[in-house]
Amino acid sequence: MHLKTKIMILVLTSGIVITLTSFIILFILQRFLPAHRGDALLLNYFLIAELFSAIAISYVAWLVARILTKDLKDLKDLKDLNKILPAKIMTSTEDHPVIIDSSQRQSPTTTRESVKSFKIRDNLSAPTLASHQDPLTAFPNRVFFNELLNKAIKHAERHSKVLAILLVDIDHFREINERLGQVRGDLILKEISQRFMNTLRAGDTITRLAGDEFIVLLNDIDHPKLAGPVAEKLLQVCKPSIIIDGEIINFSASIGVAIFPNDGESLEDLQNHADIALYKAKHEGGGIYQFYRHEMFLAAYEHVKLESSLRNALKNNELTLYYQPQLDLEQGVIRSVEALIRWHHPELGVVGPETFIPFAEETGLIIPIGEWALREACKACRSWQLNGYNPISVSVNISPKQFHHQDVVKMVEDALKESELDPTMLEIEITETAVMENIQANVNRLNAIHGMGVRISIDDFGTGYTSLSYLKQFPLSILKIDQTFIKGIPHNQNDMAITSAIIALAHNLDLAVIAEGVETIEQIQYLAERNCDLIQGYFLSRPLPASKIITQFTKKNNHEGEVIA
Questions:
Q1: Which CATH architecture has domain 87-292?
Q2: Is residue 165 within 8 Å of 215, Cβ to Cβ?
């Protein structure tokens, strides 16, 4: 018997027991009272009144029980009481970590149990139920969810109701899944799914769209703003850690909210607008929810246009490399150049990397763009040698996404082989923060690249969280001092002290040092006095296309290199 049914019976029985007990007591008392006619008649009146009171109280108890136990057939246990409470008074999830052992096989909720949670009729056959379910979570699958959503929309239209769509995405789950493997990743998704289901009301519906993306249908909400507390509750239940096979996993979620009929009157519009709001939430850093607004649609339209344009940029040869020289302070000659990408947009003109590289990282386009840049830089460097210029090495930035999610070793090997460039003429730049993620795997990658003869430098050194003990593990050749420290020279004592310390540290580790962002003669003098090896910045030259950078090179039969006076 369901708990809600028990509650109703308890309330009803209590009223009956109380009144009947009083009736019995009065009935017994009349046996011991004097048998005067008037007293007996009066007592009978009391008994009749008590009987009618019992009936009235029982009826009222029955009505109250029915009101308090609306939709009680869906409640299976005490924890499900949260589902009939408004979002603002739902009890909180325990904040202690959940421990999962991946060696213990766990199956999703049984078909019949999960079906009852979502009001699917009990007379459906098992094969039919299975076809309506997501195999991992036992939630309704996308097809069945869309059927439910369409019915909910029609119901809301007929009765002038409000409903909400919440699109939920687990932040950075792809990285978690790649690190832990699919089996443990699935166990984490099951735990998250259970938390979400326990948070929602009985009349609401949740499904897993794909991977780590969920969608929630909130039926018959009184006001659009009431979707906010529910979204916040879903975010809160993500906070307790999951300990899987001894490893602590912390995660968060982002949510986009769309309201019927304000944000759309069709399934497609509601889901698209929730997706746009979700993108906004993730763009803001994740871990939050966002309601859809019309201006988001305009921004999303520009986003789609930019993505389409950037995809075509590679095909249409709109991307090009510029090169900025790096000067040897001791010899006064150009030793190397850094390759910097530019986008010649047909309408916007030259677009700098600060504009489109973050977008390329976000969309994954950085992978083909980064590979193209490496190949082009190697070809250019090789062509300078073939044209008789003194040896000039080239430095190429590898993005964190490219470094972590692609076979970067093979990519470097292929670029060198294709261009026939001497590996010692190539330098790979990796940011300090990128190299500190998954250190052992990064050490293996860097050792493989260094084993080819390629030099490796840490870019923006001093801005991240590199432990000095790790520096000796990486096969590094160069440290690049971030320009934020160089800008403060010679006026900021802290910047000067940090710069001096980095130079001394690098030399003690037998590493060369490049100072980037050099713009004044005072900065050059300070760096020269501290034996900085190379400098780079606008004081020497802005980044130039390949056709112009060669004017700063020298031929082998000319002077050794260009000297700064």
A1: 2-Layer Sandwich (3.30)
A2: yes
Burial class (CB in 10 A: 0-12, 13-18, 19+), 191: middle
pLDDT score for 53? 67
Phi then psi dihedrals of residue 420, to 5 deg? 60, 30
Beta strand 393-397 with 426-431: parallel, antiparallel or unpaired?
parallel
Q: Whole-model pTM? A: 0.56
- Contact predicate 58/15, CB 8 Å: yes
Question: Hey, is 312 helix, strand or coil?
Answer: helix
Look at residue 413 in the predicted model and tell me its pLDDT: 95
Lookup: tokens for 201: 């009301």
Residue type, 345: H
Distance of CA 280 to the CA centre of its chain: 12
Region for residue 231 given its phi and psi (left: phi exceeds 0; alpha: psi -120 to 50; beta: otherwise): alpha
**Per-residue pLDDT at 103:** 56
Q: Which whole number is the average pLDDT over 220-228?
A: 85
What's the mean per-residue pLDDT of the chain? 79
Provide, rounded to the nearest whole percent, the portion of the chain with pLDDT above 90: 38
Q: Where are the beta strands (DSSP E) in 309-359?
A: 319-328, 333-345, 349-351
Q: How wide is the angle at C-alpha 145 spanned by C-alphas 141 and 146, nearest 5°?
A: 120
Residue 305 pLDDT exceeds 90:
no
Could you give the 3-state DSSP secondary structure of residue 167?
Answer: strand
Out of 3.20.20.80, 3.40.50.2000, 3.40.50.10260, 3.20.20.450, select the CATH number for domain 311-552. Answer: 3.20.20.450
CA distances from 547 to 83, 249, 385, 468 (A): 68, 51, 14, 41
How far apart CA 107 and CA 352 sit, in angstroms, is 51
Do the Cβ atoms of 389 and 554 come closer than 8 Å?
A: yes
